């Protein structure tokens, strides 16, 4: 009888800890962090949204996209890297392909994508950088390498009636350096660059 009572007391204590942890860690803490972020970092907390003129906004009705999430671009603009998330940049299906480097499916996908890019940009397959033919781990990467951006400059300039030098300057203006000077690689935000191209085309 004493053993049964002790087991009951232990179970009750465990249940109390579970309920308390759920309230503190599952409800109170997330609400606190969300509240602080909405006050201290409102733009980031609302999804890092940008308007057509490239300015940040917290109004989803004015937004044309997010600075931290890639999206499929029209043919006349800079193209993002491939996406394995759903049908492409699907926020409900964020993942990479998980293929190994020798997977036949990955090799076939890279070969097909190289052929498509080579024809679209009028370049040799050997000139195509790796990020142009491989998806990111999340499938939502909003950036491309400066090399992939440079590969697309001529096509984008022709499609939008701009001088090549103008588009090259836009790429340079939207190239971000390594984080803290050491982390990652230089990168170009595709959405922000495309918005700049459209503004330049409108004069």
Can you tell me about this structure?
It is a single chain. This protein has two domains: 2-40; 47-202, no CATH class. The protein has six helices and six strands, in the order ααβββαβααββα. Strands 2-1-3 form a three-stranded antiparallel beta sheet, with no helix packed on it. A three-stranded antiparallel beta sheet has the order 4-6-5. 49% of the residues lie in helices and 6% in strands. The protein is elongated and about 85 Å long. The protein has 203 residues and is mostly helical.
| Tally of individual domains | 2
Give me the count of strands. 6
Major sheet: arrangement of strands: 2-1-3
Assembly state of the chains shown: single chain
**Stretches with pLDDT under 50, minimum 5 residues:** none
- How is the biggest beta sheet arranged? 3 strands, antiparallel
Structural class: mainly alpha
Count of alpha/pi helices: 6
| Rg over C-alpha atoms, rounded to the nearest angstrom | 24 Å
- Overall pLDDT, averaged? 91
H/E element order: HHEEEHEHHEEH
Q: Beta-sheet strand percentage?
A: 5-15%
The helix content, as a percent range, equals 40-55%
Distance between the termini: 87 Å
The shape, in one word, is elongated
What keywords describe this structure?
203 residues, mainly alpha, 2 domains, 49% helix
Task: Write a concise synopsis of the structure shown.
The protein has 203 residues and is mostly helical. It has helices at residues 2-40, 42-45, 104-121, 146-160, 164-173, 190-202, and strands at residues 49-50, 56-57, 65-66, 143-144, 175-176, 187-189.
